[in-house]
Write a structure and sequence with these properties.
Blueprint lengths: L9 H24 L3 H18 L17 H8 L1 H19 L7 H23 L4 H27 L4 H33 L8
Helix pairs in contact: 1-5, 2-4, 3-4, 3-5, 4-5, 5-6, 6-7
Amino acid sequence: MHLPDGIIPLDQAIIYWIITIIILAYFFYYFSKNENNEKSIVRIAIFAGCTFLLSAISIPSPLGIPIHFFVIPITSIVLGPILAIPVAFVSLLGQSLLFGMGGITSLGANFLVMGFILAICTDIFYRLFSEISNTIAIFLATLIGIICATFSQVAILMISGAMNFDTLLATLIPFYLFIGVIEGILNVLIVEAIRSLKPELLKIR
């Protein structure tokens, strides 16, 4: 889902960067009001490192295209979307600089899709479905969050003129739907394992 440099016109890329800066500025404002800054910094650092490494791993898939898990959904579920946002930005910045995943001019757009929208949508649907079942909430929040991020990327690519809607619908949606199902199942297993071994880690939001 990482958009490379050059696929988005520079004027549009600047707009996405401005929106990203506004979101990060809000985070720093919120962070400055938080009394548990030291604990939050440690959590951000740990999850940013895990997200940076795990989402950079390329895994073969039956679709013939290697997949990369997002990791942001489970970060949003465990930490909450406010802390998931800097985790996403740091990991995406590191991936673009060290692994060539995405680009610097397109980082704003990549952050909006995989950082902000993915984290916020995951949190919204997790809260919505947690009234029914925590397991169902984790799975559906992960899946729907990834689909929301996919449609956001479709919109960005359509605005940029890079691809038409039919092509994007036929390629991106099925692929990320598949990833969403797999990552949703994995997130359920991970959270249940944490709940059994270290339940206090799930009480840090």
